[in-house]
Amino acid sequence: MFNEFLKDAVLAISANHSLNEKISFALSPLRAQKAPDSEELMVVPVFKKSPSFSVAGVDSGFASKRLSFMELLLVKTAGVVFNFKNGSLVSSIYYPTPFSFPKPLLLRQGLERDEEAQSISLIRLKERN
Length: 129
Prior knowledge:
Elements: H1 2-27, H2 39-42, E1 53-66, E2 71-85, E3 88-95, E4 103-107, H3 113-128
Antiparallel strand pairs: 1-2, 2-3, 2-4
C-alpha cells in the first residue's frame, strides 16, 4: 500500500515537472525581450531635501513566567521623539527614560494557559491606553 502511494507521488511530481519544463521552454523566447513595465521606467529622480520635522515611536514588551504560587508578568514600555532641523537630528526625548526597568505585575494564581494568554492580552491593551 505504501509503495503504491509512493509510486503515485513520484508520478505526480514527474508530471508536474514535465509541465513546468514545457511552460519554461514555451516562454524562453520572451527572455530576450524587455518587459513593458521594466524598472528603467519606474526609476524617478530623488532630490536631496533637508526638512525639519519630528517623528515618534512607541514599543512595548511583555514576558510572563509561571511560578508555583503565582504568574509574574513583566511589562516594559518605551517611547521616543526625534526632532530634526534642516535634516539633522537636534534632540531626542525618551519616555519614560532611555533605560527603564520593566513594571512587574502579578496575575491571579491558578490560571490555565489560555486564561493566562487572555489576561496578558487584556493587560497589554490596558497599558497601551
